[in-house]
Design a protein that fits this description.
The protein is an alpha+beta fold and about 140 residues long. The chain has helices at about 5-40, 90-140; strands spanning about 50, 55-60, 65-70, 75-80, 85-90. The protein has 2 helices and 5 strands; from the N terminus they run αβββββα.
Length: about 140
Amino acid sequence: MGAQGGGIPTIVLLVIMFVLMYFLMIRPQKKKQKAEEELRNNIQIGDEITTIGGILGRVVTIKEDSLVIETGADRNKMRITRWAISTNNTAAEKAEQEKKAAKDAAEKAKQERIAAAQEKAGKKKKGKKGSDDDIESKLN
């Protein structure tokens, strides 16, 4: 009777490796593909987009699997497929503006809290000074 390589530990190791591969490689790729598909499906007329090839344009017409964009100052029109869309610049700008507005609001609220705390601390100091004056007058 010789020592046998246990089959159970090998199977467990393979399962663990597959789970790690799923969470490190497959799942993030699926999330990225889903986000890209959502971006392409949410394109509206008037949005400024960038194609995979680097062409910038404004969406004029949307069809089932393609769209027409205007490019340049002389408004040349191009027909492209949806999969060629890289980014929606209009949506990115809106998101950036919302992020900036939220940051500004948070900063303003922080400044208001600081001012209120300083005011409260100032009142406490005045109260202590008044009591010190009372003690001095009693001593004299």
